[in-house]
C-alpha cells in the first residue's frame, strides 16, 4: 500500500492543531475538576476519586455519577493564576456582568515587532515575508496568539508592517528569540525585504478563559489591531504613569461594543528603550476604531492624563480579517 507524503508546512500546522487541542482539553478538565469539587463541598455529598475523575454519591437514593478522564490535573499552559480585580477586557456579555465583583486573570507576555520595509517591496515578497512570520506559531510551543499586517496609518518613524504575538511566559519568549526556525525566517524572508525592525515586550493579564487567552472565536477574526507605544517622562515613571494607564483601562471597559480586548504594560526589552510602555487594543472594526479615537472621552483622558507626562508616542494600526488569519 502506498503512503501519502504531506507537505512539511501541512504537517507543522497539523502538529500545532493537535497541541492546541491537547491544551484546550487540559484547560477544560481543570475547570471541570474545580467545579465538581466546589459542588461536592456545597452539597455536603460524599465524594471519592475514581481513576482520573470524581465519583459523586447521592445521599438520598444512592445513585452516583462518575466522570473519568486521563492526563494531568495541572492548570493548562503553566500560567500563573491570580484572583483579583483587573482591567482585562473581553466582550462576552457573561464576562461583562457587572454583578461579578472579581475576575480571574492569567499572566501573559505580549511581543510586538515593527518592521520598516524597503521601498521596492513587491506584493509577492510581502506575502512571502508575512506568511513565514505567521507560520512561526506552528514551529514552536509557547505562542498563544499572533496577528500581523501592513500598517494602515502614516507614522513618524516610518514603520510599514507590524507583528503581535502572545506568549505564555518570559521563558517562552526567550526561547522564541533563539529559535532556529525564527532566526532562519529573519535571515531569508525578513532581512532581505526590510532595512530595520524593532522589538517591544511587556507583561500583562487577560481573562482566564480559553477564547481571550488564545484570542480565538468569531470576535477575534475581524477588526483592527491598534498598538500604542508611549515614552513617559522619567519624572513620571511609577505611580503617575501607572495611574494614567489605569485611567485608560477603565475607559476602555466602557466601550464593549467597540473593543474586544486590550492589554497594557511596561516594556522590558533591553534593546528598545525608546518607549517605556505599550498598549495593544483589538477593535471590532475600522468604524469602531474611528469612533473611539475620535470620542471626546478618549481625547479628554489623553489631554488630562497622558499629554503632561509623555515625551513621545507612536501609534500603529493594521487590519485583521479571516484571510489574514489563514496566510498559509
UniProtKB/TrEMBL annotation:
Query: Which SMART domains does this chain map to?
Result: Dabb
Q: Which InterPro entries does the UniProt record give?
A: Dabb, Dimeric_a/b-barrel, HS1/DABB1-like
**Name of the protein in its database record:** Stress-response A/B barrel domain-containing protein
Which domain of life does the protein's organism represent?
Eukaryota
Q: What is the lineage of its organism?
A: Eukaryota, Viridiplantae, Streptophyta, Embryophyta, Tracheophyta
Stress-response A/B barrel domain location, by residue? Answer: 109-202, 224-318
Show the stretches that span the lipid bilayer. none
Share what the entry says about its subunit structure, partners included. Answer: Homodimer.
Amino acid at each position: 500500500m502506498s503512503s501519502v507524503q504531506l507537505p512539511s508546512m501541512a504537517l507543522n500546522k497539523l502538529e500545532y492543531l493537535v497541541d492546541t487541542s491537547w491544551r484546550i482539553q487540559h484547560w477544560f478538565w481543570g475547570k471541570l475538576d474545580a467545579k465538581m469539587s466546589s459542588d461536592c463541598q456545597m452539597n455536603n455529598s460524599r465524594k471519592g476519586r475514581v481513576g482520573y475523575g470524581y465519583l459523586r454519591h447521592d445521599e438520598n437514593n444512592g445513585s452516583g455519577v462518575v466522570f473519568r478522564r486521563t492526563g494531568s490535573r495541572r492548570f493548562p499552559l503553566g500560567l500563573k493564576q491570580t484572583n483579583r480585580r483587573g482591567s482585562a477586557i473581553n466582550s462576552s456579555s457573561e464576562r461583562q456582568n457587572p454583578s461579578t465583583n472579581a475576575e480571574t486573570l492569567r499572566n501573559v507576555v505580549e511581543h510586538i515587532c515593527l518592521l520598516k520595509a524597503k521601498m521596492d517591496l513587491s506584493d509577492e515578497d510581502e506575502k512571502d515575508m508575512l506568511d513565514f512570520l505567521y507560520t512561526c506559531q506552528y514551529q514552536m510551543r509557547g505562542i498563544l496568539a499572533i496577528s500581523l499586517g501592513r500598517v494602515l496609518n502614516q507614522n513618524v518613524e516610518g514603520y510599514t508592517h507590524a507583528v503581535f504575538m502572545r506568549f505564555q511566559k518570559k521563558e517562552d519568549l526567550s526561547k522564541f528569540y533563539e529559535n532556529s526556525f525564527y532566526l532562519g525566517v529573519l535571515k531569508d524572508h525578513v532581512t532581505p525585504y526590510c532595512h530595520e525592525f524593532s522589538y517591544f515586550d511587556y507583561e500583562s493579564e487577560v481573562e482566564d478563559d480559553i477564547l481571550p487567552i488564545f484570542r480565538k472565536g468569531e470576535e477575534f477574526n475581524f477588526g483592527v489591531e491598534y498598538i500604542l507605544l508611549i515614552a513617559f517622562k522619567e519624572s513620571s515613571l511609577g505611580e503617575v504613569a501607572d495611574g494614567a494607564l489605569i485611567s485608560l483601562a477603565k475607559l476602555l471597559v466602557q466601550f464593549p461594543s467597540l473593543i474586544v480586548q486590550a492589554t497594557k504594560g511596561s516594556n522590558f526589552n533591553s534593546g528598545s528603550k525608546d518607549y517605556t510602555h505599550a498598549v495593544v487594543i483589538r477593535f471590532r472594526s475600522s468604524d469602531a476604531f474611528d469612533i473611539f479615537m475620535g470620542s471626546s472621552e478618549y481625547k479628554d483622558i489623553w489631554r488630562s492624563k497622558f499629554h503632561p507626562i509623555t515625551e513621545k508616542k507612536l501609534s500603529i494600526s493594521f487590519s485583521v480579517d479571516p484571510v489574514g488569519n489563514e496566510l498559509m
